[in-house]
Amino acid sequence: MRHGKRLFVATFLLPPLAVYGVFVLSPYAQAVQISTTDWGGLSPDYSYVGLDNFLRLARDPYLWNALGHNAVLLLVLPVVTIALGLLFASMLTVGGRRRAAGVQPVRGAAAYRLVYFFPQVLSVAVIGVLWKEMYAPNTGLINGALRAVGLDALTRPWLGDPDVAFWCVLAVLVWSNVGFYVVLFSAAMHAIPRDIYEAALLDGAGRASTLRRITVPLLWDTVQVAWVYLAILALDGFAVVQIVTGGGPGFSSDVIGLRLYSTAFGEARFGYASAIGVAMLFLTLSVAVLALRLTRRERVEF
Amino acid sequence: MTRTDLDHSPAATAPASEPARRPADPDRPPRGDSRAATAFSHLFLLGWAVLTTFPLLWALGSSFKNDEEILTDPWGLPGALRWENWARAWSHARIGRYFLNSVIVVAGSLTLTMLLGSMAAYVLARYTFRGHRLVYLLFAGGMMFPVFLALVPLFFVVRDLGLLGTLPGLMLVYTAYSLPFTVFFLTAFFRTLPTSVSEAALVDGCGHFGLFFRVMLPMARTGLISVAIFNFLGQWNQYVLPIVLMQGEGAQDRWVLAQGLTALAVSEGYAGDYSGLFAGMAIAMLPVLLAYAVFQRQVQSGLTAGHLK
């Protein structure tokens, strides 16, 4: 039996490990190595340049510009998305009429959850193309809506204006993520015992203080996870930016992921692109650790 | 439960503005605040529902318009149901081709992901061997790393294997990048299953392989469905991997939907075939939305499973 067990473990573990090793582990390892070369991609020749790529990276104004946009995303995206998610989720689960049964979900809560989740099942390509058309100057829905209500003065070429383009992208990211967190927070709120809310109600707590003093503290673990995921998302943003604005106009909505992509597959500077990747890795890891640190709180058991 | 005590109690209508700690005054007449707050919640909720659905409905409506209607009146309803837009997008703009490619790739990669993922997870959950902890950490650690870091070397790994721009290549890569979460989730799931059943099966002369396929997999059905839904959406909606890997000569015939649609958005911008673009978008989003509407509960729990304890 012992022999059979060993054979079994090997046959079950080796195929997944082989696929994983070839396509995931080895590229990660190679990326670190390539980042210390000047490899241009056209010829197989390259030489090691040590940390040159990283020194150049620190002085690259385009990279800092892109990084600045990621920093804004990092500050705004989690806060807005989590705030809206918590607000809608608490309205859905405990926002109903406070009568006979004490605390009730709002009427039609299931339908709201169905609809809010729509963007989450759509491909980022569909979302990107859809919003690109929404923002279109003449044919877009947004300018069309503004004209329809007589606010012609507010119409603008949304994606053609360097002051506005980045915020348009940010809005798309918020739009596509809120629904997921509404559903996530609703699921977590259902786990909170009803009597806690009823006791609060009995003590005369209003909606706002119920949300702030009861719901949020009891959901903190979930909020923390949401924070980390959204922070990681904010450091990426590549797909939406590439499809909606292409980083423009004039790099005004560029992000670090798009820098990496065009450095590698546009300019074939693979060494430098890999250095950007390594920098992104450290950035992501430190942001994740920081997000966990900053949101650490005493855990409430219930 | 305190529910019955609360019934008909005046405190149930306590106004929202009251300070949190103050005990409710039974003599106070109920005010209309609660009702106003409920109406307010409804207004907000409805507002976001409109904001979510309207762009989708607009795209659907525009897919039936002709270009003149789109150009002159973005708000208006289509004058007729012009299915020819859909036909044009499906064949001329090759959305049908991309759609089928997506179906083939995801069918292959999802099967492979579930098979390899559950095999690794099962062994990690139920067997002890040397290097156990290392293998588990290798898989789980993959969830932490941004896929961007791997893009450049991955391109060359796939090219050197002669798999660049091919459907099997894309299947293998999708599978590999789905393994970390799949293994992580299923390992935890297999650990929750009772050990008595598997011991009984072994005593009855069932081999390790038979035990896995005939006993453990059926028992793990709910966990497998959750991860399968999670992986299906992730792989169907994947964008970065195909645009990096489906390059090179003739690769355009094997593009997947996400990539074909964005390329269409760029080219139709020049060609001015807006209705074709909207029809392509409708074709890309309707099947997923319909499938989601049918399996709503499973999809929501499948996608949020990874975020909850």
From TrEMBL, chain A:
Keywords: Cell membrane, Membrane, Transmembrane, Transmembrane helix, Transport. GO terms for biological process: transmembrane transport. It holds the Pfam family BPD_transp_1. The chain crosses the membrane at residues 71-94, 114-131, 164-184, 218-244, 270-292. It comes from the Bacteria. PROSITE patterns: ABC_TM1. This is N-acetylglucosamine transport system permease protein. It comes from Krasilnikovia cinnamomea.
UniProtKB/TrEMBL annotation, chain B:
Residues 9-18 have a biased composition (Low complexity). It comes from the Bacteria. Residues 1-34 are annotated as: Disordered. Keywords: Cell membrane, Membrane, Transmembrane, Transmembrane helix, Transport. It is a multi-pass membrane protein. It is found in: Cell membrane. It holds the Pfam family BPD_transp_1. Residues 99-295 form the ABC transmembrane type-1 domain. The chain crosses the membrane at residues 36-58, 98-124, 136-158, 170-190, 211-233, 274-295. Its main location: membrane. InterPro entries: MetI-like, MetI-like_sf. GO terms for biological process: transmembrane transport. Residues 19-34 have a biased composition (Basic and acidic residues). One of its GO terms (cellular component) is plasma membrane. Belongs to the binding-protein-dependent transport system permease family. This is N-acetylglucosamine transport system permease protein. It comes from Krasilnikovia cinnamomea.
